[in-house]
Amino acid sequence: MNDITDLLIAVVVFSLPALGIGYLLSRHTGVGVWEPVGVLAVVAVIFCILGLPMAAIPALAMIGLTAGLAVLIIMFLYFCLAALFSRRCNAVLVKVEVPEGKQSAFAYYELDGKVVPAIFGGIRKEVADRRGFVPGKECRVRYSRFRDAVFDRRAVRISICGLMTGVAGALMIVLPFMFMEYLP
């Protein structure tokens, strides 16, 4: 009876955050709203069958979140280093358009006679003019010949903000564990 009660409490307590995650995933991916809740219920049943404590579910969630943040940090650190070691040059903005198979617009720059895309898309065409994406405008960019793309000011900002977000998130997870012995 105690195991079933623990199982029900764990499913109810952890289903609300899982439902929130499901809602966010359903808006941006093909995942349904209730799928994370189902995964959580299956994990809770497996924990109950194996006799593991329900307190291990949040610990495993923290480990998964930390691993995801580590991947985020590595990815944006790569982009920051690629921007740092790219060649600085002047380029002319040619167009802002949505490539085939993509959902958001990319900025295309003319650099040394060839048209090169920006490394990050995500520009909404209706606000591109207000944000300074005017065709014919000369810009300072960083050209990455390995990626055959340019880092415009927006791409550099995205890389730096992504790196800082990953580091801040990792610190918010790691620091409480480092100073846990000093807590009352």
**Average pLDDT value?**
81
- Give the biggest beta sheet: 5 strands, antiparallel
CATH topology of the largest domain: OB fold (Dihydrolipoamide Acetyltransferase, E2P)
Give the spatial strand order of the biggest sheet. Answer: 3-2-1-4-5
Please, could you describe this protein's structure?
The protein has 184 residues and is of the alpha+beta class. The protein has 2 domains: 1-54; 82-159, Beta Barrel (OB fold (Dihydrolipoamide Acetyltransferase, E2P)), CATH 2.40.50. The protein has helices spanning 2-28, 35-50, 56-84, 153-178, and strands spanning 87-97, 106-111, 114-117, 138-144, 149-151. The model has no long low-confidence stretch (mean pLDDT 81). The longest helix is centred in the middle third of the chain and has 29 residues, at 56-84. Helix 1 (2-28) packs antiparallel against helix 2 and helix 3 runs antiparallel to helix 4.
Comma- or semicolon-separated keywords:
4 helices; 5-stranded antiparallel beta sheet; 184 residues; single chain; 2 domains; alpha+beta; OB fold (Dihydrolipoamide Acetyltransferase, E2P); 17% strand
In short:
With 184 residues, the protein is an alpha+beta fold. Helix content is 53%, strand content 17%. A five-stranded antiparallel sheet has the order 3-2-1-4-5.
